[in-house]
Amino acid sequence: MVFEVGNYIIADEWKEVYDYLGMAATCPKDAKDFIKKANGEAIEVNIGTCYGGDVYSASEIYTDLKNYDGGVKIKITGLAASAASLIAMAGECEMSPTAQIMVHNVSTFADGDYH
Length: 115
Prior knowledge:
Helices cover about 30% and strands about 35% of the residues. With about 120 residues, the protein is an alpha/beta fold. β4 (about 70-80), α4 (about 85) and β5 (about 90-95) form a beta-alpha-beta unit.
């Protein structure tokens, strides 16, 4: 089973707004629902292009995936930026040679940080 992580990581309460606007986003409830549906089958998490987002929601998704007993394999095919890089650590990770992962210090808004 393949769980797609795309565009932005958001809190559950924002999912309806993103869906209404036709914007791809992933929230903790998406992961919980997917894990329940997987019912012990191995899960492949595909991170295509994800710009990051809410680190608390990413932490929740990471924890749910990390605690899943059916096995989790992460595939990064494009960009796993910011909060998405946290989700990428939830299982054995495979990256395309042209993919990117971006890790940075936490910030409350988009801003550069040389550390």
